[in-house]
Write a structure and sequence with these properties.
heterotetramer; A: about 150 residues; alpha+beta; Aldehyde Oxidoreductase, domain 3; 5-stranded antiparallel β-sheet; 4-stranded mixed β-sheet; 9 strands; elongated; B: about 90 residues; Ubiquitin-like (UB roll); 5-stranded mixed β-sheet
Chain lengths: ~150, ~90, ~150, ~90
């Protein structure tokens, strides 16, 4: 495996460029996973998501994940990009591309990479709900609404 | 009471932890031979606003997750933040 | 789910256009799988692959797979394209794109779609090995080399 | 011996099956009330070159896989091919 491509960006993610990076005649399969901003979560409507990172540690953890995945599966290439800042509905927050000799390896590595990224990479999202509230998403903590809607008297 | 050998560390806060405290980084005074557990207690005492996150806060030292037993020194990069939610 | 996009093509697969077709604010995940022409198989070197289809049945089966997947998982959108004709090393033979509310659904549906496509869609590939032989790939049949190399006396 | 009521069907061949026979489609004479199993036997008798694929050949009728018990009529679209290998 060549050096993994690891990136944090405030620009829209060019997933085609990312996919081209991992394509190889040594690979029979390419797996691309995109996380996108979904409008509805448990019936609540999202207007936007804002992503924040602890950048040096996030990059270091993303690289560590790529290297761990390359030890578990025979990855031909791997690339991981996370978007930061304000994202509109449908925009791409994260892109993971892996190429592997066989498809089972690609599906397993891609699944492990996104699952583990969500557990260990220091990036946080804040919901901007359609009712005007903002809420950090911090799994395992209690209700974290920080800006309740201003209600009239 | 300031004891000779006490140290001051700078702690970066992120996401709801920073919002609750209102700023980042923050400076925290720690006893000599402090470890990550001492840092947690000092942060909780100095910033009561962090209470809702208390047991959930994670500490990173040198850009890696640290357990409470890990010793601290003033020259390390230290960060404290709630559970991650990227992806 | 809107009507699935199903296609057989002799042109290079535009997987970005395919991915854009399935992206949606109703989806939190997009899974793109690409099958690509790998150079080495069990130590033997491929020069090219040639894909042939029984087109109307292949299209009908691909559509059936998309509809079955949409019954098993809550797919937001799905698109499947298979390339036909002569493909060089590294080229894309098949592309499957699905969008789903949550990522586990996308990984499961994507995996099922490519596994089942390879079992039931009437498309066949012929290896063009570097030793000059050509060989249809027909799983379960015995050695199917059809053009042994011309050896001198 | 041609019996009244016999039928002639056209069978499309693909991949190695077509290469072994050398052409596609081929015409096959079948007895009245023939089914997919009769077609398999008639193909094997008429095209001995198919022998290497014999037990592996798949038959599709009306663009769907057909079992040996399925009856045939002359107006159906019939195809015969080896195990698929797309993807």
């Amino acid at each position: 495996m060549a050096d993994p491509h690891i990136e944090l960006t405030h620009q829209p993610i060019d997933y085609q460029a990312l996919t081209e990076r991992v394509r190889s005649p040594q690979a029979g399969a390419v797996l691309l996973f995109l996380g996108t901003v979904r409008e509805f979560t448990s019936g609540r409507q999202t207007l936007r998501l804002e992503y924040e990172a602890y950048p040096p540690m996030a990059l270091s953890k993303m690289r560590e994940l790529a290297e761990q995945a390359a030890q578990r599966w025979p990855l031909t290439e791997v690339a991981i990009v996370h978007r930061l800042g304000l994202l509109d509905l449908g925009e791409i927050s994260v892109a993971i591309a892996v190429s592997t000799p066989h498809r089972d390896q690609g599906f397993e590595a891609g699944r492990w990479l996104i699952d583990t990224l969500k557990e260990v990479v220091p990036v946080w999202k804040q919901e901007n709900w359609s009712d005007g509230t903002q809420e950090w998403v911090h799994p395992g903590t209690s209700d974290t609404a920080t800006s309740p809607p201003a209600l009239g008297p | 009471m300031k004891v000779p050998g006490d140290m001051k560390v700078s702690v970066q806060l992120f996401a709801r932890a920073r919002d609750l405290v209102g700023t980042s980084p923050v400076e925290v005074e720690l006893p000599q031979n402090a470890n990550v557990g001492s840092l947690r207690r000092a942060l909780a005492a100095q910033f009561p606003a962090l209470a809702p996150l208390g047991p959930h806060l994670l500490v990173a030292v040198g850009q890696d997750y640290a357990r409470d037993q890990q010793p601290l020194s003033p020259d390390q990069e230290i960060a404290c933040f709630p559970p991650v939610s990227g992806g």
